[in-house]
Amino acid sequence: MTLLLQPGPCRRSGEKMDSEPLVRITGVAKSYRRGSQLVPVLEDITFAIPSGEFLALMGPSGSGKSTLLNLIAGIDTVDSGSILIGGEEITGLSEQEMAAWRSMNVGFIFQFYNLIPVLTAFENVELPLLLTGLSRRERRSHVDTVLELVGLSDRMDHYPGQLSGGQQQRVAIARAIVTDPAIIVADEPTGDLDRVSAGDILLLLDRLVREFGKTVIMVTHDPRAAEKAHRVIHLEKGLLVTDPGFHDSHH
Ligand SMILES: Nc1ncnc2c1ncn2[C@@H]1O[C@H](COP(=O)(O)OP(=O)(O)OP(=O)(O)O)[C@@H](O)[C@H]1O
Ligand SMILES: [Mg+2]
Questions:
Q1: For residue 170, is it within any domain?
Q2: Residue 76 domain-assigned?
Q3: Pocket perturbation via mutation, ligand 1, pick of 28, 30, 32 by most ligand atoms within 8 A of CB
Q4: Cα 63 to ligand 2 centre (Å)
Q5: Ion ligand 2 neighbours, Cβ < 5 Å
Q6: Number of domains in the chain
Q7: pTM of the prediction?
Q8: First CA to last CA across the chain, in angstroms?
Q9: 61 in ligand 1 pocket by Cβ < 6 Å?
Q10: What is the pLDDT along the chain (251 residues), one digit of tens a residue?
Q11: Residue 220 lies inside a defined structural domain of this protein
Q12: What backbone phi and psi angles, to 5 degrees, belong to 85?
């Protein structure tokens, strides 16, 4: 396992946007069953995400943003189509293979933080490392590193209930990156935060991309958050409504 403060595995292609994309989604469709009815949520979604991109996914409520994010993150499975990540077809994996793949490659950030209330900040961040076979000392060093990165070294013994929303989300970011995954998915990470805390979170996501070569895929309703992204993709009723190319300018 690589250390967080080294460039990520996808760093090589982080600067160049013309190489094989990290994520290639082709003709993906997904429906949910509601009673006897099959309700289409995503229809024929095709686009690619280059390594090192900060991508925002926008669209009205119910348009399928979280569904798409969960497919990319390997939490849910497609009905048809293909999702290639780092050249690997993740739609073909068994549930167990998918879980193993996910734990190594994807970090998750949620709107309501999803921290475990009876664990301290330190213990919450350490949790994903308990499955890795790292020694206690190695775990401690990784957790220290990421808590310092999010500016919460002095809060590691606090419980989530003793932290502000913004601080809880920073703990959640530390937890998401402690295993050094190449991809960070964030579902409305600033949706529950005031403007200042939201700004802190966006700054951190931006640093993960710029300094560590991470690829960030962020669902958001907030135009201010989307502004920080390299590119914005819009979903409407299960369809992409914007040019899915890499052509948008990067700031
Ligand atoms: N597990 C599920 N079972 C059945 N229907 C679902 C499931 N998950 C999502 N849906 C349906 O799929 C559609 C898209 O849901 P999704 O959560 O992807 O939307 P969203 O764009 O993230 O919306 P929001 O902005 O409100 O979070 C909705 O109509 C929703 O009811
Ligand atoms: Mg959603």
A1: yes
A2: no
A3: 32
A4: 8
A5: 66
A6: 1
A7: 0.90
A8: 32
A9: yes
A10: 444 444 444 433 444 445 689 999 999 999 999 999 999 999 999 999 999 999 999 999 999 999 999 999 999 999 999 999 999 999 989 999 999 999 999 999 999 999 999 999 999 999 999 989 999 999 999 999 999 999 999 999 999 999 999 999 999 999 999 999 999 999 999 999 999 999 999 999 999 999 999 999 999 999 999 999 999 999 998 889 975 555 444 44
A11: yes
A12: -125, 120
